[in-house]
Amino acid sequence: MSLPDDDPGWGLGALLAGESALLTMRQVWLAFCNALVVFFIVLSVMELESDDPPFSPEAGAIGLLALGFVLVFVSWQLLRDLPCANIGALLGGYRNRFFVRLAFAEISALLGFAAALVTGSLLPYLGGVVPTIVGFARVAPTRANLQAEDEALRDRSCPHSLSALLRDARFGTGG
Fold this sequence. Notes:
By secondary structure, the chain is mainly α. Helices cover 70% and strands 0% of the residues.
């Protein structure tokens, strides 16, 4: 089945065979998501224990939940508009913003992983991973998210379509 706008989709065949920047970004995004699952598995199979943790697991979970949402919000407020001067600026700006937003979103999960080891409980990781998942979902290079990006660009009278540029194999990953 052909997808609208020539979107190659998320299928394994497309992700492994594709040469566009879009497919590369989807592979990277999936790798970050897989890391969250691996961290959870590692913490789940470890015998977490701590005789006298420096803070309670519940406090760690609540703190990381709050910190994570603040970081996701800040990254979205600071990095709004993409440059539209030329194709290179647009693609480079999108890639940079993608990675910064991923990094900001992942901080709470990484801190939650460390806090889980310190407290001997899975709770801090779970508290930290919730905002990470929200941040990852917002930055995911999905068709809907890219259409929203294109609408925002059109509203600013940008002559370029980000989704079309990302699908174009000529731009690959080098932009």
